[in-house]
Predict the 3D structure of the following.
Amino acid sequence: MKRIKILMVAVASVLSTTLFAGEADTTTSKVEFSAGADLVSSYVWRGSRVTGASFQPSVGVSYAGFSLGAWGSSNFDNTINEVDWTLGYGVGGFSVGVTDYFGPYVDAEAPKYFADKSHILEATVGFDFGSVCEKFPLSIVWNTNFLNDLDEAEDERYSTYVELGYPVSVGDVQLAFAVGLTTWDGMYSDGLNVVNLSITGSKEIKVTDSFSLPVFSQVILNPDTENIYMVFGLSF
């Protein structure tokens, strides 16, 4: 519990500093807010199915490269309730961040939000080559858990997931190809394995002259578990 309170105080401090800076100097940058939601036919995360149809809202604030965002997921029988916070910073194509996961990844039947060991913390570093070369929009992201990702001996596993992404435009359809792998034994697999091969297609369906509905479809193959999934989603 003490660790969670420390994390929340740190996040609040960064956010308050960011907001006051935005009020003091709006000539170089400004505070921006965002909100949205997805409705998905099933929730598949990094090559593994978490649950069935889910509603996934998000909200965030950013200023001068810093960002704080919350993302959640709830299925329709209310057995999965996930709320994740991410504090990040990006400049050019480079980005770093820390994510606090609370939900089905915690090894507990009914985790309490302020209970000790009820949160997994993950560090992220990434680079988007498209920011320096438009003809080569490859992105790479490295994610490693560093708190409460425990094995049976209560030792940290430092589960790691690395993903390469490449977007392509085909007419009015945006395609995104991804390859995800884990580097060693952890929550994703028992060693070095490819756990996610996916293709995502997204487009906007025109409903009226002034309103379009973004939709997307995914094909996701996990070569390690030999499972394949298809996901359909609506964005709001």
User: Anything to note?
Assistant: The chain has one domain: 2-235. The mean pLDDT is 87. The longest strand covers residues 193-208. The chain has one helix and 14 strands.
